[in-house]
Every structure is written in C-alpha cells, then in structure tokens.
Amino acid sequence: MFDFVTSHLYEKSFVSTLRAHNVKPCDADFRADCGLAAKRSLSPFEYELWRNTYLDFLVPEDRIPVAIRMHIKQRVGSAYIRRGLTKLGTYFKEKTSCH
Asked: Could you write out the DSSP letters of every residue in 30-98?
C-alpha cells in the first residue's frame, strides 16, 4: 500500500491545483493528508526522512538504510490504510468541507 500511495504522490507532486472548499478533494489535499498521516505515525527524524524522500523527492530512496526505510514504510503504510488514502477512487469522489 505504501508504494501505491507514494506513486500517486509522485505523479501528482508537480500538479498545482487550487480549489475552494466544499468540493471534491484535489491533489494538494491528497498531499496534505499523506503528510499528516506520516507526521502522526513517525518520530520527527523519521518524518523528515519521509518528507525529503517520499513527499518532496529530494533524497533518493536507496540512500536510506534498508531497516529504516522498511520501518518508515510499515508505519506510514498502516497510517495510509487507517486514513483511507489507499482507496483513491473513493477519496477523490467524496466531498470535503472546510473545518
């Protein structure tokens, strides 16, 4: 699941869309939800690794030690599932509201 969501993040990372609230989620909403899921499930150091590697794509994945990489993927992958980020069709069809 982690790789599935991350690949969608990569595809949409260069798309700039701004929408008013109370509409269907956009790519920026998806990026923000992924970031929140990661931030809430990782330590500050692990979050910085995740952000630089999987959100901003600044650091190649192979530069992170395998054990740390797997730990991050397991923790964040579980958070993606809990937040419903793996169901892209459902995610982008539901309306959101400004809270």
From this structure: HHHHHHHHHHHHS-HHHHHHHIIIIIS--S-GGGS-HHHHHHHHHHHHHHHHHHTTT-HHHHHHS----
In a domain, 53, yes or no: yes
pTM over 0.85: no
**Could you give the angle at the alpha carbon of 8 between the alpha carbons of 23 and 31, nearest 5°?**
50
* Contact partners, residue 55, CB within 8 Å, separation at least 6: 9, 13, 31, 34, 35, 38
Q: What is the pLDDT of residues 1-37, one digit of tens each?
A: 677 777 777 666 555 444 444 556 778 888 899 999 9
In a domain, 36, yes or no: yes
Within a domain: 72 = yes
CB 78 within 8 A of CB 41: yes
Question: Domain containing 55: what range?
Answer: 2-8+23-93
Domain tally for the chain? 1
